[in-house]
Amino acid sequence: MTKTITVFKGDGIGPEITDAVLKILNAAGADLEYEIFNVGAKEYEKNGKLIPDEAFTSFDKNKVLLKSPITTPVGKGFRSLNVTLRKKYDLYANIRPAKSNKAVKTPFENVDLIVFRENTEDLYVGVEEQIDENTVHATKIITRAASQRIIKDAFEYAVAHNRKKVTCVHKANILKMSDGLFLSIFYDIAKDYPQIQADDKIVDNTCMQLVMNPQQFDIMVMPNLYGDIVSDLTSGLIGGLGLLPSSNLGKDYAMFEAVHGSAPDIAGKHIANPTALLWSACMMLEYLGQNDVAGKIRKAVDEVLNEGKHLTPDLHGTATTEEYCEAIIAKL
Ligand code: NAD
């Protein structure tokens, strides 16, 4: 049965890459219908709401959202819409796979790792308190329930996908209580998965190890802030943010988005790389059981990347977003 999904177009490069991705999904024969909404900073300026009520209603109903990046003001203004969505729909598991592609040359080869980022708590609860004019406190929350479910998901994924190892990333040497709790829960849960190797690394060491020997990592699980930072680093290992997709999964809802932001520096120039959003859409198709269509798109993308004739500038090519998109459609 045709599945109706909700689509948020977002800011900056959001509308360009959304159009490209929807075109490819249609050309590949995805069994989908779309309810498409403008959301984000522009929508806020126009209608006073970041997300129109109808857009929320649509996601409430369809339970699956393909989302483009949204601009968030730094240091002032509204709370990040991404954080709001993750919290409102309890999208607790942020899954960010980084896999080397032979066609994209970087100093790193054979990277194949997946970051499982806890998505609902840690410093991202956004609780800050002005103590006096020179002092601000920010609250970091780590709970047993939220830690257990993301860590369990990481191990379950490892089993289901024949992965060998799960690494817990933390700073429990300094944050002995909060990250200490996360780490102790990790080793408790690891006992239930004797077939999967479990180890842990402090986050700063992890960053160094990722650029020295990224092949040692397989599945990585970590609290929210480290997950945000480490996964941008892992995107660098495979050729940049234009290539890093993600899913945000909860019990009842699922949201799929590129890891990158709205890239205001290149918005409207028709040079944005839509691959991260396209691969996020493939994760969505797989989530919906449309594996054949996802496979077809992944194969076409690989062919275009391998040929190297129609690459966007972030991959050292000269193609526009639209030319890259047409090249993929031609392969389908
Ligand atoms: P960014 O990810 O938007 O851009 C970082 C760099 O990567 C820029 O040079 C940009 O041109 C490049 N880049 C990003 N995506 C690309 C793509 N698809 N193709 C080619 N190049 C690409 O990060 P930023 O500049 O720090 O953030 C811009 C805005 O996006 C901020 O308001 C931030 O809050 C927001 N943001 C939103 C999300 C989201 O909606 N999920 C995620 C991260 C940042």
From TrEMBL:
Segments forming a coiled coil: none
Keyword Cell wall biogenesis/degradation (UniProt): no
Entry superkingdom: Bacteria
Gene3D superfamilies tied to this protein: Isopropylmalate Dehydrogenase (3.40.718.10)
Occurrences of domain Isopropylmalate dehydrogenase-like (ranges): 4-328
EC number(s) per entry: 1.1.1.42
InterPro entries in alphabetical order: IsoCit/isopropylmalate_DH_CS (IPR019818), IsoPropMal-DH-like_dom (IPR024084)
One GO term (biological process): isocitrate metabolic process
Single GO MF annotation: magnesium ion binding
Keywords: Oxidoreductase
Any Pfam family matching the protein: Iso_dh
PANTHER family membership: DECARBOXYLATING DEHYDROGENASES-ISOCITRATE, ISOPROPYLMALATE, TARTRATE (PTHR11835), ISOCITRATE DEHYDROGENASE [NAD] SUBUNIT ALPHA, MITOCHONDRIAL (PTHR11835:SF34)
Family of the protein in this entry: Belongs to the isocitrate and isopropylmalate dehydrogenases family.
Name of protein: Isocitrate dehydrogenase [NADP]
Organism of derivation: Megamonas hypermegale
Protein's gene: icd
